[in-house]
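User: Is it possible to get a 3D structure for a protein together with its bound compound? The compound here is phosphoric acid mono(formamide)ester. I've pasted both below.
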Amino acid sequence: MKHLLKLLDLSTEEIVDILDLADKLKYQKTHGIPHRILEGKSLGMVFAKSSTRTRISFEAGMFQLGGQALFLSASDMQINRGEPVEDTARVLSRYLDGIMIRTFAQAEVEALAEHGDIPIINGLTDFCHPCQVLADLMTIREHKGLLQGLKMCYIGDGNNMANSLIVGGLKMGMKVACASPKGYEPWREVLDFAAPNPDFLLTSEPLEAAAGADVLLTDVWASMGQEGERAERQAAFAGKYQINAELLAAANPDAMVQHCLPAHKGEEITAEVFESHAAEIFDEAENRLHAQKAVMVKLMS
Ligand code: CP
Ligand code: NVA
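Assistant: Yes, that's possible. Here is the predicted structure of the complex:
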């Protein structure tokens, strides 16, 4: 594994390796055992979109690993004034040991990997959010003891989260059901991967997707960059694509709830369900730190 660009590129064994290492690093962190595996290494973190969890967990994680993380706002870099991504990649490769990038186009992340010669980590694009889903899989496994055979249900927009959850869940042997409104389904590349798998279900009916689920997940109706579509999206999602008490009642009695955050309570999830599953949701947020440290160690040590 040279980069983390999208989960479609990873084998099941590579995902399991990351999750196992993440568990070990979490144990070391919580027991005060030093793990300065990336001493002297520098990670550049390029952000063209906002972030709380991704930025802070990468930055703190790199510090805990003995390395350094540099926050690079894309709007302050020459790339924003038209410097080509292939030149940026070649320059950054001379200074840094790895780059985490959050941006719009997946093609930009792939181009950095193609033209640079250091590991590239996708910290979210419009297409996918692999770091988040590694943390989600880690959290589900931590709470349930295993992943294989469990049913994952995603309700809502067929966005970056849906795309990565479908791929990650299926690669780990989970059953994956996704309920999205017509016109807001997951991306073609993901459906092409998932459709032949008998463990995959795509529907527009949330209750059908939630039936017998072991974990329910959702995400915002309008993602970063889609602010102008808010009203139209509200109309397409409201009243149906929400994790609420009725949906939970269709799932297994001990079903978990996960949300990548930030959440719009009252939209994709009720405040009541969010608060009654807050322990799992904030474990998921914490596990961003451990899962990303594992990714950095795999790619940069
Ligand atoms: N879940 C997630 O990626 O959060 P941030 O946008 O705060 O980084
Ligand atoms: N789908 C959301 C995820 C945020 C972590 C977005 O892209 O804005």
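The chain has two domains: 7-129+287-300, 132-284. The two ends are 12 Å apart (CA to CA).
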